[in-house]
Structure formats: structure tokens, C-alpha cells
Amino acid sequence: MKSGFRVWDSDTHVRPTLETLEPYYDAKLRARIGELDRYKQVVKGGERVTRTVGNHDYNFPGYLVFKRTLGYDVADSVPQVGSGKKFMGTRAPSAGTEDADATARLRDMDEEGVDAQLLVPGQPNPEALDDIELQVAFVQAFNRYISDFASQAPHRLKVLLPVLGTAPEACAAEIKRWAAEPWMVGVWPVVGSELPLDHPSLAPIWEACDEAGKAVVHHSLANSPPYFPGYRDMWGSRMLGRAASHPWGAMRAVGAFIGGGLLERYKNLRFGILECGCGWLPFWSRRLDDQVEYIGGSAQLAETIGEQMAGGRFFASLEMAEKEDMIKMVVDFLGEDVLMYASDYPHPECRFPESVEHFLSWSTVSDDLKRKLLWDNAVRFLGEP
Predict the structure, then answer these.
(1) ∠ at Cα 8 (319, 324), nearest 5°?
(2) DSSP state at residue 220
């Protein structure tokens, strides 16, 4: 709690190193893990140490690298240092908090006044290797790891399970396996770069979520598969690529999921987007409704996409960079029950340890609306911690 407000942080991250994940490998994965040695790389320090420095992760084929500085040829562009991201806070989050140290993570939460966090998963995903057995094995290993991690404070550390478009039946079984755990609140579909989010083959995943009453969450990626729409059209610009990737991915996801009729077909589903911005939502809501009327191409919908976006089962995390005037504009258009506070902890975009303070400093946002954005809307989306 911070200044009398309960705080549900709807976008934070966890990404275990290989050494942290290794105890959770099953026998089949252990038998094959040597095949991936050529993709291993050392986790280095520098920008942040939220993952264990000196441990390893994988650098699979397909990672996008945008090298060009706008106004320059690629060969003359300013070299990027590290990830090229400026840390937006005043002090780095504690060591190991993205990897293996749940206790340190809870201390960071206490310092910021955060009651609960949603942990977006980061597990090895060898999509480029086209090996479904390995993809499923890493998902299952991650789920065992995160169970131990989040179970240290299951009413504060809430988790999305990764689900794969290449293995919907296996992932539906994982949802059913973990659904009763207090830390499990939803799924993050990683459906691949070619499979539509509304494709009928994914029905086992939506059915399992619907039965368990779990949320479905889209979180875009900037450099890794599944790629965002238009990723080949960035003219090599790392600024344009990062700026476009998250909202473009979410625009497609919102249109496909709601326009595909999934919220109407599965009455217990709730759908949300994280770290994709929200200022574009009013435009996109109107644009989608206009195009459905103009050219068709959606499922047969009882309510328009715009009505469903404002109807209580669609949610979106806000971005600090959008500032209070834009947040109020979205609230004026979609209502007070859509947006959720988010920090992006422990990534460089967070404002640790003043993320919550920064939000509370928005003087033109009323206390009643702050309570909805900080707590009530996330509870409606993800459940009471």
C-alpha cells in the first residue's frame, strides 16, 4: 500500500536463467538439452543485474536487431551500447529479482508500496528451431519453476502461464494442471509469427481458460518471435521498431480476438493487453467498428468491437510515458473500468523505486479514478490477490 492506495502492478517480468531453470527439466528435455549448447550465451551485468550475472541463456536464431540511427546510413549509425535503453528510475531493482530471488523481489515491492504483481513469463522459446517437443518441454519446465517461485508469496506474486500455438492440447492440459494454484491468474499466448490469435485450432486453450475463469493476456515483443506486424518495414530503425512494435502487435491482437467473436463465444473469458500503450485505443475502437461495417470480415457479433472494449471484459495497462492527460482522454472515451496501473518492473522502462509515486503525482487524476487504475480494475481482470 502507498499513501492509502492498494497497488496491483499489472505488468512486471520474470525470466529465469538456464541454471535457475535446469532443476525443473524433465527426463526428455535433459536427454536433448545438449543439442542447444551452441546457442548458449553468458548473462552479463552492466545495465541491470536482475538476472544472475555469469549464468546463461539462449540466443536462438531469429532475434531482430535494428541497427540504423534515423538520418544516417546503417554504416554511419551511432553504435548501440547494450540494449540501448535508458533506465528511467533512480536506482536499479535488486539483483536476482527477475531470475531466482523472490525474497528480494518482495522487498522491492514493499519499498515501492506494491501489494501484488502480475509476472509476465520469459522462458526459452526455440520457435526458430521448429521443434514442438522442445517448445513444450521448456513451457512445462517454466511452469514448475514459477510454481516454486510464486508459491513463496502466492497472494502477492501472480503469474501468466505461457501457452503455445503449436501445442494447444498440451498447453490446455497445463492450464488445467495449474488452474487451482492461487498464483495462477491467466495465460500469455505465444502463438507464433504466422498463426492468427483467433484461429480455430486454439480452441482447447480458450476452453480451458473459460472453464477455469482465467484471463487471456497479450504482451507484444519488439525483437523476438512472434514478430509484430510490419517488422520488415522499419527501414532498420531501432527507434521506429521499438515505438511501433508493442502497439502494432496489440492492435492486431485486439482486432483478431474480439473481432473473432471469442469474448462472445466464451462467456468467462477476459482479454487484456500489456505494455502496448493505451492512447490509441479510442481511435482503434472506432476504426475497427467502421471497417467491420464497411467491408465485413469479422465473426458474426452481437455487440460491436467498440462496445465489447468498453463492456467490462477488456482491459489495458497504461504507460507512464502517456501521462495523465492522455490517460484521462482514454477514460473519457472507454470509461473508468478499462485501464490498469503498470510499471514494467524490473525492466529499464520502470521508474524504480518511485514508479508508484510517479503515478500518484498526477494531480489531475482524481483519487477515485486512481483507486480504479491502481487496484479495482486489475482485481476485475485478474482476481483478488
Answers:
(1) 30
(2) -
Reduce the DSSP state of residue 116 to 3 states and report it. strand
CA distance 157 to 132: 29
pLDDT recorded at residue 80: 64
Predicted confidence (pLDDT) per residue in 244-272, tens digit: 999 999 999 999 999 999 999 999 999 99
Distance CA 14, CA 271 (A): 21
CB burial string 300-320: b at 16+ within 10 A, e below? ebeebbbebbbbebbbbbbbb
- Alpha carbon distances (Å) from 134 to 73, 139, 176, 225, 288: 39, 9, 21, 16, 37
Beta bridge partners of 162: 188
Partners of residue 53 on adjacent β-strands: none
pLDDT digits (tens, 9 = 90+) for 20-63: 999 999 999 999 999 999 999 999 876 567 999 999 999 988 88
How far, in Å, CA of 323 to CA of 124, rounded? 34
Q: Are strands 40-42 and 56-58 parallel, antiparallel or unpaired?
A: antiparallel
Q: How many residues are given for the chain?
A: 385
Span 208-225, average pLDDT = 94
Q: Are 314 and 308 in contact (CB under 8 A)?
A: yes
| The 339-340 sheet, strands edge to edge | 8-14, 116-121, 157-164, 184-190, 215-219, 270-274, 314-317, 339-340
- CB-based contact 113:2 (threshold 8 Å): yes
Dihedral pair phi/psi, residue 278, rounded to 5°: -140, -15
